[in-house]
From TrEMBL:
This is Aldehyde dehydrogenase. The active site is at E222. The lineage of its organism: Bacteria, Pseudomonadati, Bacteroidota, Cytophagia, Cytophagales. Residues 35-62 form a coiled coil. Gene3D superfamilies: Aldehyde Dehydrogenase, Chain A, domain 1 (3.40.605.10), Aldehyde Dehydrogenase, Chain A, domain 2 (3.40.309.10). Pfam families: Aldedh. It comes from Mangrovivirga halotolerans. Keywords: Coiled coil, NAD, Oxidoreductase.
Length: 477
């Protein structure tokens, strides 16, 4: 007898609500866990990830033919680096902060403690399925929370490995993995979690925030967008081309911080195009999509979406100067450069999230800034050029979640800096100290040490002396 839709729904709702209930008791115990306890768990997680290295690579290859080397540098290592950095610094990050006491509160002392938020939910996307599910988990565990991870439904093989690793380190009542599509995610979103850490598209980010508002649950939204890359006339051409080709075609362009479009100064445009073409040939051996050592598009639907964006640009006059080959039901797309691109094309209106790189020429840095500012605030902004004044001009003229000067994408891997968007590319931060902060409540505790504190002068009845005190407060404090 086949299961009806209602029975399936009742089944996953029961499973999820049981885990959620069980996590309540555990989250209360975890409030008392020590830094040592949490580090012990993170080390156990590190050990299991190292143990499953080969399976992780094979799973990502099965999911979208991601090359093993790319999995190592952009999935496994990134999570391991997060664990190691967190274990090394957690004691310092969670140390209560003693603060000064203002004169009107004389007699009291205050401190800020960092306590776990409680039950947390991580929703992750398919494009870095291992990294973006487990990276935030490191911060959630370090901060002392329970967690449910909802990975993307488009990476089933990776999800199997994630589930196996998690089950070897945690009981479900502490960390559980729930697979599923929109109905499962919407049910999860209806529950009163204490924090939701979402990584994905701005469109789904809005759905998450709306659902979280019903429970007044705090959210971190790590979203996407069009990350501009400026190559100014004094940039080092060969060096810029190499870094851009790496950052753009890693993961076949399916990277939230990949350069989305290039803004190139007219004086160096031809030279840069030649350098980009040469670098693509060197790195990917040939234009033949069958032999390029880089991964596929996640599924045919996304491949067709990218092809439509490409076709729209070509139909409106864009010139293909490298690549442009689609094969294997459009899930294998060669690294593609497009010139003569204009703002009325879809390629300049939406996040590309694939290996198409449009090139736009500018003659004045002010015009480049205007193009960037005509679009929603991006997750990343890249500037290639060597004059500090120009670098400063761009940083001050255009907002972005993150920025790199004379490089791209690798800012994601520096655990010492926050990673997050602004406006349409999200809010809140992840990584290292900032990730642990996202999963912690900064709780101020004021302790009164005397029965005659200076603050008692604020209590009624207000005699002439107290009136004098309140006047002094208004005037001087
Ligand atoms: P997505 O928003 O479609 O999906 C992300 C997650 O949300 C998945 O787990 C999915 O199952 C769930 N989801 C999808 N539709 C939903 C709905 N209607 N209701 C509830 N949940 C839903 O994103 P994606 O396609 O998996 O990933 C690509 C996007 O993610 C791009 O925009 C990219 O820029 C962004 N991204 C951002 C970062 C970052 O760190 N800022 C990193 C990677 C990807």
């Amino acid at each position: 007898m086949s299961t009806t839709a209602e029975e399936t729904k009742a089944g996953f709702e029961k499973e999820i609500s049981t885990i959620f209930e069980d996590q309540l008791a555990v989250s209360r115990q975890l409030r008392k866990s020590t830094v040592k306890d949490r580090i012990r768990k993170l080390k156990k997680l590190e050990k299991q990830i190292l143990h499953f290295q080969e399976e992780i690579k094979q799973a990502l290859y099965r999911d979208f033919q991601k090359p093993a080397e790319e999995t190592e540098i952009s999935e496994t290592w990134v999570v391991l680096a997060e664990i190691r950095h967190t274990c090394k610094n957690l004691k310092k990050w969670l140390r209560p902060q003693k603060v000064d006491t203002p004169l009107p509160l004389l007699g009291s002392t205050s401190e800020v403690i960092f306590e776990p938020k409680g039950r947390t939910l991580i929703i992750s996307p398919w494009n870095y399925p291992f990294n973006l599910a487990l990276g935030p988990l490191v911060s959630a565990v370090a901060a002392g929370n329970t967690c449910i991870i909802k990975p993307s439904e488009f990476t089933p093989s990776t999800n199997v490995v994630i589930k196996e690793i998690i089950s070897r380190v945690f009981d479900k009542a502490e960390v559980a993995v729930i697979e599923g599509e929109v109905p499962e995610t919407q049910y999860l979103l209806s529950l009163p979690f204490d924090h939701i850490f979402f990584t994905g598209s701005p469109a789904v980010g809005k759905i998450v925030m709306e659902a979280a508002a019903k429970n007044l649950t705090g959210v971190t939204l790590e979203l996407g967008g069009k990350s501009p890359t400026i190559i100014h006339k004094d940039a080092k051409i060969k060096d810029s081309a190499e870094k851009i080709v790496f950052g753009k075609f890693l993961n076949a362009g399916q990277t939230c911080v990949a350069p989305d479009y290039l803004l190139v100064h007219k004086d160096i445009k031809n030279e840069l195009i030649e350098a980009l073409k040469r670098t693509i040939k060197e790195k990917f051996h040939s234009d033949d999509p069958e032999t390029t050592p880089y991964c596929n598009i996640i599924n045919q639907k996304n491949g067709e979406r990218i092809k439509d964006i490409f076709q729209d640009a070509v139909d409106k006059g864009a010139k293909v100067i490298s690549g442009g080959n689609f094969s294997n039901n459009d899930i294998t797309i060669s690294p593609t450069l497009l010139d003569s691109v204009s703002e009325d094309m879809r390629i300049m209106g939406e996040e590309i999230f694939g290996p198409l790189l449009p090139i736009i020429e500018y003659d004045d840095l002010k015009n480049a800034a205007e193009i960037i500012n005509s679009k929603p605030k991006p997750l990343a902004l890249y500037y290639f050029g060597n004059t500090s004044k120009d670098q400063k001009f761009i940083i001050q003229s255009c907002q972005s979640g993150t920025t790199a000067i004379n490089d791209c994408v690798i800012q994601f891997t520096n655990t010492e800096i926050p990673f997050g968007g602004i406006g349409n590319s999200g809010f809140g931060n992840g990584h290292g100290y900032w990730g642990v902060r996202a999963f912690s409540h900064e709780r101020p505790i004021l302790k009164q040490n005397t029965i005659f504190p200076s603050s008692s002068l604020l209590h009624p009845p207000y005699n002439s002396f107290k009136r004098f005190v309140s006047k002094m407060l208004v005037k001087y404090f």
